[in-house]
Design a protein that fits this description.
By secondary structure, the protein is an alpha/beta fold. It folds into three domains: about 35 residues; about 375 residues, Phosphoenolpyruvate-binding domains (TIM Barrel, Alpha-Beta Barrel); about 55 residues, no CATH class. It is built from 18 helices and 14 strands. The strands form three sheets. Strands 1-2-3-4-6-12-13-14 form an eight-stranded parallel barrel, surrounded by eight helices. Strands 5-7-11 form a three-stranded mixed β-sheet, with no helix packed on it. Strand 1, helix 4 and strand 2 form a beta-alpha-beta unit. The protein is globular, with a radius of gyration of 28 Å. The protein starts with a helix and ends in an 18-residue tail after the last helix. Its cofactor is Mg(2+). GO terms for molecular function: isocitrate lyase activity; metal ion binding.
């Protein structure tokens, strides 16, 4: 028997046991509402989605073509529409996630107004957005299932057993819109206890994967800005431990920790860790410091810090703000050490913040990491901060030049110019961009590709296009032609915005609760009927 019909029978038996007091309760309606609310808590979601990610990680280990993807979403509605679009166009949400970007929370969700990505926004806004995203995804499930229930009712009314069986099968095999969220906790918003407390809130809201970075919490910068300051490994590992304890305390035993290193672009550290033995983590961290040899007390100024390093006394170079500087050219080595150390101490995935999208650069670092941790794999930011067009045109130019191909028709510094858009070089560069994710998954160990803030840009672009026409000569045609007609032609569900906002679900519930006395909104005078 259908699982759905089993639920109906169970509620019928429960109603019968109440001695007639529940006779106004329809078992089938109860079964429908139960299925429309599959996930009762955020922890239910976190446990379910952690299992999805673990399976996806294992499948990627076996076959690198099985990489995963996500887009950053700054509002529940945006996340909902993304998942609806994925199911409509691709038939399944498999291997598609959501990304929660700290950058977009800072820029769009803070009560202070738009802020830079420097951990100045309210940390409670992070779990709040996770909860909001899952609220909208669960509502998408309820709405879609509601449509299937109406199809079932119509089939029964028409006595069409084939359509009835098809509707029951669709209900039983319904795929939820609830997918994993990789959530950005920045640098933890404080010490390790603060990181633990915030991680708990994020997990309780539904996060199965938390991304934490090795910057100093109170000096945090966007990964694509200057002035980044990293912390010693011991400090970072304490925060990884804090997040793992939060997962374990809440019963999400297979929760995922993404360890992000900003060392590639960070040239500063806030403190010098204490080394107890040669070769320990503190010793390796300090070995990257820019230092000056101390031969006598005369080489030391008032207030200078001196350390013994490899048998010599050295003075680390300290800036006027008290920060210490790393030696130039050590970023990749520090990045590799960060990654190995994080994986060996409890992290599950890596995030290397790079300055450009280059498969060779990323792959070279991953090759070194995999010498120590063979199954190391990355979450990678396909960032809007990169000029993808210029970067890849220059990569093609450099490849051609190294092959001895004539590049005299191109000026490398000006390759962004529209004059090159129809050129052979630009065409090949676009092909490289198109295959970047598959190439990087295969050659650079990237398990998950994401774009941190795409919907920030799409919202601005679509609003610009509408405002240009609507407030100009096109007037209302700008909306009709540029938005509504496209929604209708492309089958965008929210063209029926009343239904998307829950109007039909509300009508169903009113009928469940009040029967024929229900005052419903979806009658013949509802203008939503104009859309068929």
């Amino acid at each position: 028997m259908s699982d759905y019909l089993n639920d109906v029978e169970s509620f019928a038996a429960l109603r019968a046991a109440q001695g007639g007091t529940w006779d106004n309760i329809n078992p089938e309606y109860a079964a429908r509402m139960k299925r429309q609310n599959r996930f009762r808590t955020g922890l239910d979601i976190a446990r379910y989605t952690a299992g999805i990610m673990r399976r996806d990680m294992a499948e990627y280990d076996a076959d690198s073509s099985q990489y995963t993807q996500s887009l950053g979403c700054w509002h529940g509605f945006i996340g909902q529409q993304k998942l609806l679009a994925i199911k409509k166009h691709h038939g399944t949400t498999s291997k598609r996630y959501l990304y929660l970007s700290g950058w977009m929370i800072a820029a769009l969700r803070s009560e202070f107004g738009p802020l830079p990505d420097q951990s100045m926004h309210e940390k409670t806004s992070v779990p709040a957005l996770i909860e909001e995203l899952y609220t909208f995804l669960r509502q998408a499930d309820a709405r879609e299932l509601g449509h299937l229930y109406h199809e079932l009712d119509a089939a029964r009314e028409a006595h069409d057993q084939l359509k009835e069986k098809a509707a029951l099968k669709a209900i039983d095999n319904y795929e939820t819109h609830v997918v994993p969220i990789i959530a950005d906790i920045d640098a933890g918003f404080g010490n390790e206890e603060a990181t633990y407390l915030l991680a708990k809130k994020m997990i309780e809201a539904g996060a199965c994967a938390i991304q934490v970075e090795n910057q100093v919490s109170d000096a945090k910068q966007c990964g694509h800005q200057d002035g980044k300051v990293t912390v010693p490994h011991e400090d970072f590992l304490a925060k990884i431990n804090a997040i793992r304890y939060a997962f374990l305390e809440l019963g999400v035993d297979d929760g995922i920790i993404v360890a992000r290193t900003d060392s590639l672009g960070a040239g500063l550290t806030q403190k010098i860790p204490v080394s107890r033995d040669a070769g320990d983590l503190a010793h390796m961290y300090n070995a990257f410091l820019e230092t000056e040899l101390v031969e006598s007390a005369d080489d030391v100024r008032e207030g200078d810090v001196v350390i013994k390093q490899d048998g010599k006394l050295v003075r680390p170079v300290r800036l006027p703000n008290g920060l210490y500087r790393f030696r130039d050219g050590t970023g990749e080595q520090r990045c590799i050490l960060d990654c190995i150390t994080s994986l060996q101490h409890g992290a599950d995935l890596l995030w290397i913040e790079t300055e450009k999208p280059h498969v060779g650069q990323i792959g070279a670092m991953v090759d070194e990491i995999r010498k120590a941790v063979p199954n190391a794999k990355l979450v990678y930011n396909n960032s809007p901060s990169f000029n993808w067009t210029l970067n890849f045109r220059q990569q093609v130019y450099d490849a051609w030049e190294s092959e001895g191909k004539d590049v005299s028709g191109y000026v490398r510094a000006n390759l962004m110019s529209a004059d090159y858009d129809d050129s052979e070089l630009a065409t090949l560069a676009d092909q490289w961009i198109q295959s970047f994710q598959a190439d990087a998954a295969r050659e650079a160990g990237i398990f998950h590709h994401l774009i941190t803030l795409p919907t920030y840009h799409t919202a601005a672009l679509s609003t610009d296009n509408l405002a240009k026409g609507y407030f100009g000569a096109e007037g209302m045609l700008a909306y009709v032609q540029g938005v509504q007609r496209k929604e209708i032609r492309q089958g965008i569900a929210c063209v029926k915005h009343q239904d998307m906002a829950g109007s039909n679900m509300g009508d169903d519930h009113k009928e469940y609760f009040a029967g024929e006395a229900a005052l419903k909104a979806g009658g013949k005078d509802n203008t939503m009927n104009q859309f068929g």
